[in-house]
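Hi,

Apologies if this is the wrong queue. I'm a grad student, and the batch job for Transglutaminase-like domain-containing protein from Flavobacterium shii produced an output file that my downstream script rejects. I'm not sure whether the problem is my script or the file. Here is the sequence I used:
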Amino acid sequence: MDIDNLLQRNILGGQEYEPLFPEVSCDKTNLGNGNTFDTVRMIKQMVIKYNHQTKEVAKGLQQSSLKETCDRIYSFLYNHIQYKADGMEQMLRSPACAFKERVKGVDCKTYSIFASCLLANMGIRHYIRQIKQPSFRPDLYTHVYVVVPLNQETGDIKQGYFIIDGTTSTNREPIHIMAHDTEVNLPHFGLNAPKTNRKGIAKKTPIVAKKNTNLPVLLGIGALLGVLFLKKTN
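Support response: The file is valid. Your script probably expects a header line. Output copied below for reference.
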């Protein structure tokens, strides 16, 4: 089964979104080797590092309800970015790179990075879910997508959730035998500094009279001027 032919779609031009992304070269950087848990960890790092690239796009996609927002993000990803499965090399593209290479295609990992970046800019809690599928290598985690809990306050997935999976035409959760979720939390920083009420007091610099080392010279000049003055008056 050719998964590329199965999941590829006719995409929209999307030229109106191009000015909203920073220009990137899509140069390849070696992030190291690892298993699928390492991949999800790297996905989270990509979201933390590159979520700013979707700040402007997120403003236009966010809707009044959580469901409408998730549907809008899915529709944007599915209709503007082509699907192409990765080979031996696992490609984790930033959102700007994914949109630049949207005709070439990306796979589930990059769709998840893109969706997560958008949600992060919207302040919406979500998880990266990796699953084992009974119909394809059931011993391995072979697919990832984004899960958005209905209860945004607690983030409890057991109370229900939406998914965002840009790989499929239905955005329905695939059948799976095992799932593992990783919440995407952006780093937070506390800013503070002690406020001082002390005003700067200018210190008065003492003036110390220094002994003039040129005094003999000045006395000589004064004597000469005195002689000239006396001659002139006489």
